[in-house]
Amino acid sequence: MSLSRRDFLAAAGTGTVGALLGSAWGATQSVDSITQVDNPLKAYPNRDWEEVYHDIYEYDSVDWTVCHPNCTQSCALNFYMKNGVPIRAEQIYHEEEGSPGPGGPGGYEEAGVTRHWNPRGCMKGLTLHRRTFEPSRIKYPMVRKGWSPDDPNPEGRGEDEFERVSWDEAIDLIAEKMASLEDEKRFHIFNAIKSDGLITRHGAGRRLASIFGGCEWTEYDWYADLPPGHVITTGYQTSDADASAWRAADYTIMQGKT
After folding, report:
1. So where are the chain's domains?
2. Nearest to 73 by CA among 126, 151, 35, 31
């Protein structure tokens, strides 16, 4: 910083010369001068930060899985694991000998699959693990502060804060409410929504509804989309294989249009 006589007198007139000398001008005296670099490829600044950046993607193992968020395409993915947590996902390119696939040791190679089928997977599937392991994800039950079984206080919806409760408290509250509905014979309006997951998502909701004499509803019941159409046409509901396996099929039916 160059402080001219005119600048000094102007600063002195406003009473800011002390601050000027102590902050702006004074601070510049402790800053290292800029090194002149003729070839930036031969003289690069400190690169220690790169190791920290690279370690973000360091992994312990690679696990094979199938993406199943609800699109029914079942794309095969590799999950790169670190301390038991997936840190990134990548598509599996089924072309090498012995890759996972239908029909035995040859895998998809025997089915004549080439790299032209790849890549499989979309951004939703490739980033779904971030949502699952997101630090801000709520992993415990919460109850609206102004709510109680005896006084639901519906006016507080959208306004009240939520407070954390134990799993035992949450399950007791749900059970009490369901028992109350059963006593009032109100389960004709009970809608069982299936849980998530590959194992329990279909059976759990149906069993719960059956216990109380209710039924399971889905959106397909009222707009008659894919599952009803599959059942009427083929007698079987929504069974999709990995697209790489299509070429191994003896007979293929394409329903609808693209």
Report:
1. 1-29, 60-132, 139-180, 185-244
2. 126
